[in-house]
Design brief:
single chain; 401 residues; mainly beta; Porin; 5% helix; Porin_dom_sf; signal
């Protein structure tokens, strides 16, 4: 019977040898508790569905990470998601298809269980863990949803050479946001993730990556993706200027029956001064008429608009041109770090000339005393070419120890 990587970690914890009492005491005394809580209300009005979604959910993560003992640390974390309302939303497992999807099903699960080792510029982690590579566009934890995506994996990081970081991860299970009670709750397989990052200077960083996804439950999404990203930063005339350029090529991999050869392009520039920042960018994911460039283990909510209209790339691909701005107000009474942001997206097919629609997003965030934070967010998508209109609003209060 297959033993998961997370299970191996729990067994390793039981097999810990008896160290000297004083050393073992420091192992616990230098540890730290984990407590993260988030209360959220989410509203969704989606064209074509008879009901609007009203989801009031609470998420708690709780656990403990030990101090270091001969370079080793242990971490265990549970996660619980509770519906505080009347279930007036489709959580993907409750069968309420007359409501829009709010992918936060009730669940209690082992979120993370890992043993880590660090010695100089070498670190390793074995077990159920959080993995975010780069900006999360291809590999992420889907941190916006209440149930986090984690990975049963062995991960290595090398940073022994100045300005160079090499990361490799072998993944045998992806624990998705849909939870243990969903048939779509996980991806099994033998997936290899890699990234090499080098800082040429404070102004220029390059990242090369190769992700080889083998997904038993979704062979059409088993792909090989090779890419390169450049990030730059400079100061000019009192402005902070940032830029990014990225290209990736994707082909079929492992048991994928399709023949794929698809490209990804992304370019972005930002200009900031004092409390202001403006952004212009464009992102293209190709499609061949049968399949679009896929990113099944990414943090999808972060990209192509908060309305989540394009969690799966259309078969004719997608082009997203966007412009946005943000302003940080500072403090107001008990609120600190108040920041407002707005972004406009225009979506079109990459293959052909169809318009998919446009979207406007807004965010307002602030910190409160006692490690609390308050967030407001809204997304308004007007669809074309068969994509349904949808409006979404979120209000949340979060705490992190």
């Amino acid at each position: 019977m297959k033993k998961t990587i997370a299970g191996a970690v729990l067994l390793s914890g039981l097999a810990t040898p008896a160290f000297a009492g004083e050393t073992l005491s420091a192992f616990w005394e230098e540890g730290k508790p984990i407590l993260d809580a988030r209360l959220r209300y989410e509203y969704v009005d989606q064209q074509g569905l008879p009901e609007d979604a009203h989801a009031t959910t609470f998420r708690a993560r709780y656990g403990f990470e030990t101090g270091a003992l001969y370079g080793f640390t242990f971490l265990v974390e549970g996660e619980t998601v509770i519906d505080l309302g009347l279930g007036r939303y489709n959580d993907t497992v409750n069968g309420r298809g007359n409501y829009p999807v709010v992918a936060d099903p009730e669940d209690t699960e082992l979120n993370r269980a890992q043993v880590s080792y660090q010695n100089g510029g070498v670190s390793a982690a074995l077990g159920r863990q959080r993995i975010i590579l780069g900006n999360g566009r291809f590999v992420g934890n889907v941190g916006w949803r209440q149930n986090e995506q984690t990975f049963d994996a062995f991960k290595l990081d090398f940073e022994s050479i100045e300005d160079l970081r090499v990361t490799y991860a072998y993944v045998d299970q992806v624990n998705r946001i849909f939870g243990d009670n969903s048939p779509n709750g996980r991806y099994d397989g033998e997936t290899h993730l890699s990234e090499i990052a080098y800082a040429f200077s404070d102004a220029l960083t390059a990242k090369a990556y190769g992700h080889f996804l083998s997904l038993d439950q979704a062979p059409l999404l088993s792909t090989r993706t090779i890419g390169l990203r450049l990030d730059g930063k400079t100061e000019a005339a009192g402005f902070t200027l940032k830029g990014a350029a990225e290209y990736a090529h994707q082909e079929d991999y492992d048991d994928n029956p399709l023949s794929l050869s698809l490209d990804y392009w992304h370019g972005e520039v930002k200009a900031g001064k004092d409390a202001w920042e403006v952004t212009l960018g464009g992102e293209v994911l190709e499609g061949n008429g049968t399949q679009g460039f896929s990113t099944p283990i990414a943090t999808l909510h972060k990209f192509q608009g908060f309305a989540d209209a394009f969690l799966t790339t259309p078969v004719n691909g997608i082009q997203d041109l966007y412009a946005g701005g943000s302003y940080t107000f500072g403090d107001l009474g008990p609120l600190s770090g108040i920041a407002f942001g707005a972004t406009y997206h225009d979506f079109e097919a990459e293959r052909g000339s169809a318009s998919y629609g446009d979207e406007v997003d807004f965010t307002l965030n602030a910190k409160l005393p006692y490690d609390l934070s308050l967030g407001l967010k809204a997304a308004f998508f007007e669809g074309e070419s068969g994509f349904a209109d949808r409006d979404k609003v979120w209000v949340q209060l979060a705490y992190s120890l």
